[in-house]
Automatic annotation (TrEMBL):
PROSITE patterns with a match to the protein in the record: HTH_CROC1 (PS50943)
Family membership: Belongs to the short-chain fatty acyl-CoA assimilation regulator (ScfR) family.
SUPFAM superfamilies noted in UniProt: lambda repressor-like DNA-binding domains
Claim: Protein biosynthesis is one of the keywords in the record: no
Annotated keywords: DNA-binding, Transcription, Transcription regulation
Record's protein name: XRE family transcriptional regulator
GO molecular function per UniProt: DNA binding; DNA-binding transcription factor activity
Keyword flag Transcription: yes
Length: 469
């Protein structure tokens, strides 16, 4: 007696038929069965037999694995991740029910996923409005904030781009492979030209001459990334635009910033393919320098890529990332670890990311404790852009990469320093205006909602004195 479970694929069969633009009668004729039998299959009143799977694959030139395989594993993982949101904490949803919804109602599943993503974007926008103190009727929108909301609502993860890049990465490896791909597929040669010829461009596509031009002063990692970025624009424009279409943008600049972020994402995914990079990250215990050497990328590119490893069903350590200049201006910020970044204004000066300019290119580790008691572990280091020739302008920035306390034990940085424990955490705040640690001597502004005391009789060591009320 067979123990095999009957296979019901009604919704998937219906979607296939509609994607092909067929009626039930058309499909019945193609498969040499009755239209009523097609209707029974689509309503899951009859199982899909092996013979029928073969007919579908043969008649419509379909990949058997994609047709008969689990096809919904990734969607199931996405729905399960959605259901982990705290607002659903009081609802007990067994995993089997989630699988049944994905398998039986793929259209409804997609609706739920899109609605939740839109909800996350709205929540982030409301947080921005509250932080700025803007009136709801104020239509002025910060394009940078728009792009950041778009990425944050999706946890900076775009599986479609990862899959497309991973497929190409099988045949394209290293800078020489990228150059060969550009020549073979797009009839484009690569030339490196002096800075004075390139003007203000690092990379330029010259379609008239059939060339991709690169600034000769770029280091190897930057040249390779620029070639991968050009391939992303040429090969995956449709995928980038499809991902972008899921967002909502009030300004064209916000949309273009998000589009640029997606292109850079695809380029990084080509140089550091998801499966291989995630496996190496785990094996190397998230040693950023070692991973950068292994994949021929820069320290910053590698740290940035680590924030994207949240593909449903294949998640790695969730990281947050921030890049600042010596003046404290934030030029890049990505959150996949639940770190409450200050959306406006500066960050806490006690965080080591603001101090590593004193020790260039050295990794500084630090435990952080927020006012609510939550703890995070971060590494910080300076990175350099520009240069490459005598007299060329160099820009020094600092980046920090971190994760929540429960994941820190998986990092080489904590494993190699047993004495570095959460008990050594530095108390920091999100931003001075939201931090109520009244004794902090590094404070630059009083917290919202606290009355200041006069200092005519007493001057505290902290910059501001506050009442207890």
């Amino acid at each position: 007696m067979s123990n095999e479970r009957p296979v019901y694929m009604g919704p998937r069969l219906r979607r296939l038929r509609r994607d092909l633009g067929l009626t039930q009668a058309n499909m019945a004729t193609d498969l040499d069965i009755s239209a009523s039998y097609v209707a029974l299959l689509e309503r899951n009143q009859r199982p899909l037999t092996a013979d029928m799977l073969l007919r579908l694959a043969r008649v419509y030139k379909l990949d058997m694995t994609s047709l008969a395989g689990d096809g919904g594993a990734e969607t199931t993982a996405r729905l399960q991740a959605l259901l982990k949101d705290p607002m659903f904490a009081d609802i007990d949803i067994p995993p089997l029910e989630t699988t049944d919804v994905v398998t039986g109602f793929p259209g409804i599943t997609e609706v739920l996923l899109r609605l939740y993503t839109a909800y996350r974007e709205e929540q982030l926008e409301l947080a921005d409005r509250g932080a700025e103190g803007r009136d709801e009727s104020d239509d002025t929108t910060d394009p940078v904030a728009e792009a950041r909301r778009f990425l944050a609502a999706r946890r900076n993860n775009f599986p479609t781009l990862d899959d497309a890049a991973e497929a190409l990465a099988e045949t394209v490896r290293g800078q020489d492979g990228l150059i060969a791909h550009l020549l073979a597929r797009h009839k484009l040669r690569v030339r490196r030209l002096p800075t004075d010829v390139m003007g203000s461009s690092m990379r330029r596509l010259d379609r008239h001459r059939g060339e991709v031009l690169l600034d000769a002063t770029l280091d190897t990692a930057s040249q390779t990334f620029q070639l991968a970025l050009q391939i992303a624009w040429l090969d995956w424009r449709a995928e980038i635009d499809a991902a972008l279409a899921e967002g909502s943008f009030a300004t064209e600049s916000g949309r273009r910033l998000a589009q640029r972020a997606l292109a850079s994402y695809a380029a990084a995914a080509l140089l550091m393919p998801y499966t291989a990079f995630a496996r190496a990250a785990e094996a190397r215990h998230y040693d950023v320098e070692m991973l950068a050497r292994q994949f021929g990328a820069s320290f910053e590119q590698t740290a940035h890529r680590l924030t994207t490893l949240q593909k449903p069903g294949a998640e790695c350590v969730p990281f947050f990332f921030i890049r600042v200049d010596p003046a404290g201006n934030v030029s890049k910020r990505l959150d996949g670890a639940g770190f409450p970044f200050a959306r406006h204004g500066g960050a806490c000066p006690l965080w080591s990311v603001h101090q590593v300019f004193r020790t260039p290119r050295q990794i500084v580790t630090q435990w952080l404790e927020l006012p609510d008691g939550s703890r995070f572990f971060s590494i910080a280091r300076t990175v350099t852009a520009g240069g490459g020739a005598f007299g060329s302008v160099r820009v020094e920035r600092a980046i920090a990469l971190g994760c929540a306390a429960e994941h820190a034990g998986r990092l080489v940085y904590t494993q190699a320093q047993p004495a570095l424990t959460p008990d050594t955490a530095t108390p920091i705040g999100v931003t001075c205006r939201l931090c109520h640690r009244t004794q902090c001597t590094a404070r630059s502004a009083p917290p919202i909602g606290r009355d200041m005391l006069p200092d005519d009789y007493r001057r505290a060591s902290a910059p501001f004195g506050f009442s207890d009320a």
